[in-house]
Amino acid sequence: MIPLSNTAIVGIGQTEFSKRSGRSELQLAAEASIAAIRDAGLKPSDIDGLVTFTQDTNDELELISSLGIEQVRWTARTPYGGAGSCATIQVAAAAVASGAAKAVLIYRAFNERSGFRFGQPGSANAYAGGVDTPRSMHFSYGLDTPAKIFSLWYQPYMHHFGVTNEDLGRYVVVARQHAATNPAAWFFNRPITLNDHQQSRWVVEPMLRLLDCCQESDGGVAIIVTTLDRARDLPQRPARIAAASQANLGNSSNLFNYYRPHLEVFAEARASGDDLWRQSGLQPNDIDVAMIYENFSPVVFMSLEAHGFCKPGEAKDFIKSGAIGLAGQLPVNTNGGLLGEGYIHGMNNITEAVRQIRGTAANQIADAENVLVSVGRSGFILQK
Amino acid sequence: MGILDETFFWEGVDQGKLLVQKCRDCGTLRHPPLPMCAQCQSLHWDAMQLSGKGKIYSWVISKHPSQPDAAARTVVLVDLEEGVRIVSNLEQSTGIEIGMPVEVVFREIDGVRFPQFRPREPNSALEITQ
Known about the structure:
The complex is a heterodimer. Chain A has a nine-stranded mixed sheet, sandwiched between helices. In chain A, strands 5-6 form a two-stranded antiparallel sheet.
């Protein structure tokens, strides 16, 4: 048994991020996985643990049969969807720290644009495992897409602090700027202006326009976690997992997180962030790059405040000041994020964090030593 | 939340009542329905009728909803005066403000009865439309 902080990410792999992969989700998973295994300098037979999302359609046995893995001794799946994306790292790290597995392969692959689209009306019900019933506490009232479901959660924040859709647009412009110089991004070479954002159609008035919404993408991402000791014998510079936690809070809900008294505070991000600061001994101003999950733009604002990068209500001014750009005090979503690069359920923000630690990112931040990856309900810190 | 746990809620709606669970042991109200009291872990509860009066905490306009009808709808979070919050619809699509006083009405939508809300004068007597 070793401390969780003596584990590291040693391999990353990904497919292209497209709108129509033309391949099965299993093939995307296999392609990303073998790329990650080779990147780590390992062979399929070295992998003895597997982690993915409960929502991933790729069966463990079909994947290991594709990859030629002989025996997997440990498996786990993380709950919810994107909110569990960072939990995959904690779960994998815990497995190698405990000795349950020696090298864990994390994978997530889907055709989320050409296949099952989360954003279509009614999809959220199926996605949440909902029962087809004429009356439900949430879906029956017209909350039938993630944009509507989450907007009901964003409105109290935006109202309380006077955040406008134009304020949101200033984040989107930065994300698209980062994507524009990242060749792996779907929106490579396609930056936008604030005016472009303000001209895009309303999806949920008065919160979200089209350009506030993450992409729908086809693709796969895979990540290898092992112990720091073993990492030192492998070819890549280890990205040490300095801290990892989850914040599954009582009185909350995966999609319909409406029932806590004060929704202007992102309680999950505050709780998981506090764990990360405590575990790592770091403070917000020690973080060199922050990768923040944004299915929709307001989450970035709420997360920046909850993690203590700025005071409550000040994210709009923080972003307006240029703080989250590549030359700012806290570069955010340097790959373009889920709006700009692609939407692989948050996992492409993790591979970007690893590249920042290795020094190989398309938009490399010089001397990045501490990188936070957060989705609120789970998060971790990578350290050089 | 399981379908069985919320059966009482919809039975109440069919009778024109807005019901929430009240813990029989410690009196704590809870919504949406859950099988156990988070305060005292009791499994015993009674259905308590609410006044139906509250204030809007959040709202969105849902365009092109897939069910149960196709017209744009105003989705609201209502803070009810007894201290629970509920998702519903508001029978108004313009001039909506956070903090606006509302009251429950019961309406049939495509043959199924739902609680809905309408604006109220701050101190008006509650009318339940059966």
